[in-house]
Structure formats: structure tokens, C-alpha cells
Amino acid sequence: MYTGHCLCNTVQFEIHEGIRNIVCCHCSLCRRAQGSVFATNGIVKAEAFKLIAGEDNLTGYASSPSQTRMVLS
Asked: To which H or E segment does residue 30 belong?
């Protein structure tokens, strides 16, 4: 199991399986979202991801047809 949280600890989560296809992406959307030269991304099944705290503080937007990015609101 993996656990994590945002920098201010408002949003907390658990992942109950391995993370697949981990890549460092250099596309313009990932660079902009991270404020860096790349973002590290991986795939997890939705049913293996659980928000523990802070769901009300998140806002989602469609960054592409198959991707939703979540940000603190």
C-alpha cells in the first residue's frame, strides 16, 4: 500500500495496488501543471485509489479527452 498527501496535508490518499507504467512526461500540459521540466505520472485503477481526506478541497478539469487533472480549489 502507498500513502500520500499534498504539501499542506489537506488532501490525503491511499493506493492499494502497484503503480503501473510510471513515466516522466515532458509535454506542455505536464510541464505547466508541475511548474517543472517534467511530471512523473503512473497508472492506478480507480478502485485501488482512495481519498482519505480533503475531497471537498479538490476541483477537477478535463485536460484531454481521457484525462482529468485535480487541483486544490
From this structure: helix 28-34
Mean pLDDT of 48-65: 92
Per-residue pLDDT band for 65 (boundaries 50, 70, 90) equals: confident
* Amino acid identity for residue 67 in this structure: Q
- For 1-73, strand residue ranges (E) read 2-5, 12-15, 20-25, 39-43, 49-53, 58-64, 67-72
Global pTM value: 0.76
Listed residue (11, 10, 36, 13) closest to 25, CA to CA: 36
Please name each of the domains of the chain with its CATH number.
2-72 (2.170.150.70)
Res 71: pLDDT: 84
Q: State the average pLDDT over residues 8-24.
A: 96
Q: Half-sphere exposure (CA, 13 Å, Cβ side) for 43?
A: 5
